[in-house]
Amino acid sequence: MTADNEKTGNDKTGKRRGGWWQIPMWATLGGLLLLPLAAMQFTAEVDWGPEDFAIMGVLLAIVGGGVELGARLSGNAAYRVAVALAMVAGFLLIWMNLAVGIIGDENNPLNQMYAGVLMVGVAGAFVVNFKAKGLARVLIAMTVAQVVVAGVAQAAGHFTWILTAGFVSIWSMSSWLFARAARDEAAKA
């Protein structure tokens, strides 16, 4: 296998080879989608309709697709873990907001500010062309946006600092991993 093929994950024929982690990842995501269905058989507390399953299916597919994309964009382990962390954190942010809301209840319009945090990440990733050095900066921008949302929530009388600290930690760790991947890439050049 050539160095280029190792970076892209292709074999000698140029065909994409799957990682060992793909089947367990997709099985886990599928299992997460089936959990509410199983819970509905045992309790009335879980009452999902078809739209709930569709939304969750789309969210889980985005997470899985994002992780797959990250694996195809770079063979660097730090880059791949950074992508996975960012995708899982983004999923959790959306899921919590849709389920119960982070600021007050799920109907509080202030919760829409979290979409801005995610838009910083999505738009930023495209602007920096998914390059590790740029993504490190994008994740710092997401960290700042997350703190700004918490400040606005606090001004409106809602305490979200503990949850904010959790997301700030994840965004910061992802940023650090992207920066490490950028250093690794620069050292190899």
Textual characterization of the structure:
Helices cover 74% and strands 0% of the residues. It contains seven helices and no strands. It has one domain (3-188). Helix 5 runs antiparallel to helix 6 (132-155). The two termini are 19 Å apart. The relative contact order is 0.10. By secondary structure, the chain is mainly alpha-helical.
What's a concise summary of this model?
This protein is mostly helical.
Beta fraction: under 5%
- Give the overall shape, derived from the CA principal axes: flat
Tell me the helix content.
Answer: over 70%
Mean pLDDT score, rounded? 89
Oligomer: single chain
Provide the succession of SSEs: HHHHHHH
* H/I helix tally: 7
- Strand tally is 0
The total tally of domains equals 1
Q: For the CA atoms, what is the radius of gyration?
A: 19 Å
Q: How does the major sheet shape up?
A: none
Distance between the termini: 19 Å
Instruction: Outline the low-pLDDT stretches.
Output: 1-6
Structural class: mainly alpha
